[in-house]
Amino acid sequence: MHDVIEKEKPMPVDAKYKTSATAHGTGRDGRTALDDGTMALQLATPKELGGPGGDAANPEKLFALGYSACFLSAMRVGSMQTKIKLPEGSTVQATIGIGPRSEGGFGITAALDVYLPGLSESDAQKLVDATHNICPYSNAIKASVDVSITTRS
């Protein structure tokens, strides 16, 4: 008999933009390409996970690229909502990890390092907290991944 775990039903999303990619080969050791032809990448499993490693991409690298860009973009909306000016030169570094879970299978870790030059610690924290509730990447993973966020100003 299996335990039934009730999950919170996700909020509906009115997707204004969609994109598709197709992976070929063996997944992590293969190739992935956007279906519209604008980008294609060779993939390789990291050495730490038993693969060849090297300069090729992997899903965690792609997630880090997307999350950092999305969070920085979402800070513009957070800035408007909080009335805290987003400083020029702000950056977001996303560090994504992967490894075995104690419950079995694999999981990811996420850490954001948000640099907001010149903001007070209080304003920086308010802006980052608001942004974490706005960012689609944060909203997609916050129920299953503990996102660590460091704020520097």
How would you describe this structure to a colleague?
The chain has 153 residues and is an alpha+beta fold. It folds into 2 domains: 17-57, N-terminal domain of TfIIb (Single Sheet), CATH 2.20.25.10; 59-152, GMP Synthetase, Chain A, domain 3. It is built from 3 helices and 6 strands, in the order βββαββααβ. The chain has a 3-stranded antiparallel beta sheet, with no helix packed on it. Strands 4-5-6 form a 3-stranded mixed beta sheet. Strand 2 (30-34) and strand 3 (40-42) form a beta hairpin. Helix 1 crosses helix 2 (121-134). The longest helix is centred in the middle third of the chain and has 24 residues, at 59-82.
TL;DR?
By secondary structure, this protein is an alpha+beta fold. The protein has helices at 59-82, 121-134, 136-141, and strands at 21-25, 30-34, 40-42, 91-100, 106-115, 147-152.
Secondary structure blueprint with pairings:
Blueprint: E1 21-25, E2 30-34, E3 40-42, H1 59-82, E4 91-100, E5 106-115, H2 121-134, H3 136-141, E6 147-152
Parallel strand pairs: 5-6
Antiparallel strand pairs: 1-2, 2-3, 4-5
Helix pairs in contact: 1-2
